[in-house]
Amino acid sequence: MARSNRKRMMAEINVTPLVDVMLVLLIIFMVATPMITRDDSQREVDINLPVTRENPSTVDLQKTEKLILRIDAQLRVMLDDVLITDCHEALESEKPTRFEPCFDEIHQKLGKNYRLQQDGTLYLLADTTIPYGFVVGAMNRIRLAGIENVGMVTNPEYLER
Asked: Does 70 have pLDDT greater than 70?
């Protein structure tokens, strides 16, 4: 009788904590699943690759309806055929802020262009010999003027060689 009074060890697995964890995970997935969308338009990344012989996709600059901001070798900035600013004098200066008046004028005039503000898209065609900092500064002012989509026209003369 002494044996039956002793407590026996339980050899069964307690599954209650496991079930609790599984139910919590199930609820988390049920709540999170509707938030995951499979809409491909939201996952699309628009990449404009540079023009090479292997990637001949180009924009015909004569036939496009988009506005084109051109920066020539003398730092004349033109929106289509209209001169926005002439910064050729800044090329001779060594001051770090030498391009700021030009950038301010680009920002001001692009911000006032009704067609550009409505369309929100612009092509940027810059001469390959101008300072890199000028192109970056111009792109920054384009963005600050409210233009969201800027397409870079890279090496249009490359395909002619």
From this structure: yes
